[in-house]
Every structure is written in C-alpha cells, then in structure tokens.
Amino acid sequence: MAKPVLKFKNELSVRDYAEGYRLYDIRRGRCMGRKIKASLFFFLAMAMLFMLMQEGFNIPKLPVCSIVLLICIYMCCFFLYIQPNMSKHRGEQIYKSSRLISMEYTFEMHKEYFIMKNEYESLKRYYTELSDCIETDNIFLLIGGTEKKIIVISKRCLEEEKKEELSAFFKKETIRQYRRTRSRRKKK
Amino acid sequence: MTDTEKGILPENIDVSFLPTEEDYVYMNLEKEKYLTPKANKIIFRIIGMAGILSGTAGLVLRNGNIIETICFLLLIAVSLFVISFYDVIRPFLVFKSSSAFFRYNEKDIISKNLSINDKTITVNDELHRISIPKEYIYEVYKSKRTLFIFLDKEEFIYIPLRVLNS
C-alpha cells in the first residue's frame, strides 16, 4: 500500500460532532433550503399583513389572515433559528448514543482517498464520493458516501502546523466540494 | 440492547448479500416510519383536523367576501396536506428519492458480508469494515422486510430479511 501523505490521530468531543451534524443538516439534511422556505413564509406573512392593514387591523373580520400571519411568523423563526438548534441537539444525542464516535480514530490521507480506522472500524473513502468538504474554525466536515455520511475531524486535537497542512490538502484534493466558513462572532 | 432485541438478532450466521433497489427503497421507508416520533404524527393529525374543521365552519357559517372564501379554501387544502403528510406524502417522497438515489449510485452499492457470533458482529465490504462487540449495539429493530442494527440513534447496518430467510 502507498505511503499516506498525512497521518494523524483524532478524537471528537460532543461539541465538535454537534457542530458537524448541524452543518450537515443545513447543507444536505432537514434544514436544506431553509432560507428559501423562510422567505416563502415571510412573503406569505407580508401578504396577510397587507390584507389586515387594508381592513384597518380589524382582526375579528379576518381571523384566518391573523392565524396564517402568526403561523408564518412562527415558521420563519422555525426554519431560521429553531430547526438548526434542534439539529445541534440531535447531534449531541447521536454522539451520546454511540460508543464508536467518541473513540480515537487514526486518519491516513492518501492522494485519491483517505482511511479512518480504530480497533473496531475501518473505512476507506474516495474524495470523489464526497459531496461536501466544509472547513470551519473548529472542524473539518466531510459529507458523502452511501453509509456513514458524516465524518467530522476535530481541529482541537491537531497541532497548528497539521491544521494548515490538512486545510491545504483538502483545498487541493477536493476542489469542487471544498468550502471554508467562518463563525460570525469571530469575524467581528 | 435489551433481552428482546437480543432475541431478534440471529445467532451464528455468516451471509453475503448485494442489496437490490427494492431492498434499499423498503429499508428507507421502514427506517423513516420507525424513526419518526409518534408525537409528530399525532400533532400533524390534530393540526390538520383542526384546520379542516375551522375551514369548513368558516365556509358554512360566515358569509364572507371572495378573498375570505379563498382563504378558507386554502386553509382546508393546507390542512389536507398536513393531515396526510406522514401517511401519504412523506412515504411517497422517500420512495421517489431513495429509488432515484439507488439508480444514481448503483455502481457504488457493493456486496456485504455479515457474520454474527456469540460475542461480535462483523460487517465488511470493499471499503468499510466494522467488527464490534454486541454490547456496542444501540438498538435492534426488525420490520417487515429489513433487520436494522443501530450503532447509534441514526447510523445503522441493515440486512434484508430475504437474506436471513433463504
């Protein structure tokens, strides 16, 4: 077997996995297209508000409009804030229910694929199988494949030099799938 | 894993199988059915019923203008959608999407070997190998056509029952 380009050990914390799961849900899961869904409800809410305004906010006259308006406001909040938080919570639950995710894995990065393994599991994944490779301030998230769709690599366990090497490696090997996101708080 | 779940899990088997489109689609349908919380289904039905009742009452009791009539009809239509979401619409969407996913990724779906002995479960294919003690299993669920071995709340190994029955 060819020698790996990079080799490192990684162990996930509940925070890292939850962050990864939330991002996965936003990109490929239940929260996909949340801004479009929220926008649709926003425009419906605006239409209802307009109808209510025309009647001088006479709510008993247009009760359905008022109910639809409230539902639309709730749905906007649900898609933009509640659902991503629920995903994060679900990620935490998944982490706690698994005895494999919290174990230490050894990653071997090759030119065409990577292998992650520990004493119970070994997975070989080609970069062409990946649909997304997302880098945040704390994690690398690899999405794709027909099983074990979410692979999270924590940056906390990596040395500064290794982080940069890995970031450059993913940028080079997963050109189409790679994207870097930064947390808004740090930007300020 | 509970004692009942231990009973569901077959013992001392060693099989090899290649999932078919039918296996894959039914696995997804049964998984969705199992993983969807019952509370969600009940809430959707209650909301749907309330919507239909209030929409119908609005149409019958109020002599509203045309916009209001349209609103009530829209409410009834949305309520019908909500009430049938988990029973008709979602299974249909899952059926369509998993069938399309299988056809698109058919070349990536490879045969698996599964062996279960007294202490461990081993599943391996060309790319993925898991060999875990039985204590590491989170849950076992047997549906009409598939046996699910959950490793956590979401990740699972599935075996079509046709493989075990043959």
Looking at this protein, list some descriptive labels.
heterodimer, A: 188 residues, alpha+beta, PH-domain like, four-stranded antiparallel beta sheet, four-stranded mixed beta sheet, B: 166 residues, 2 domains, three-stranded antiparallel beta sheet, 7 strands, 53% helix, elongated
In the CATH scheme, what's the topology name of the largest domain in chain A?
A: PH-domain like
Beta content of chain B comes to 15-25%
**Head-to-tail CA distance between termini of chain A:** 46 Å
Q: Please report the total strand number of chain B as a whole number.
A: 7
Number of helices of chain B: 6
Q: Which structural class do you get from the secondary structure elements of chain A?
A: alpha+beta
Shape of chain A: elongated
Low-confidence stretches of chain B: none
Major sheet characteristics of chain B = 4 strands, antiparallel
Secondary-structure content class of chain B? alpha+beta
Structure description:
The complex is a heterodimer of chains A (188) and B (166). By secondary structure, chain A is α+β, with helices and mostly antiparallel strands. Chain A has 2 domains: 6-27 and 98-181, PH-domain like (Roll); 34-83. Chain A is built from 5 helices and 8 strands, in the order βαααββββββαβα. In chain A, the strands form 2 sheets. A 4-stranded antiparallel beta sheet of chain A has the order 1-2-3-4, covered by helices on one side. In chain A, a hairpin with a 3-residue loop joins strand 3 and strand 4 (121-126). In chain A, helix 1 crosses helix 3 (63-97) and helix 2 (34-54) packs antiparallel against helix 3. In chain A, 24% of the residues are buried. The model of chain A has no long low-confidence stretch (mean pLDDT 88). By secondary structure, chain B is of the alpha+beta class. Chain B has 2 domains: 1-18 and 110-166, PH-domain like (Roll), CATH 2.30.29; 20-107, no CATH class. Chain B is 53% helix and 21% strand. Chain B contains 6 helices and 7 strands. A 4-stranded antiparallel beta sheet of chain B has the order 1-2-3-4, with no helix packed on it. In chain B, helix 4 (66-83) crosses helix 5 (85-104). Chain B starts with a helix and ends with a helix. The mean pLDDT of chain B is 88. The interface between A and B is medium-sized, with 26 and 23 residues.
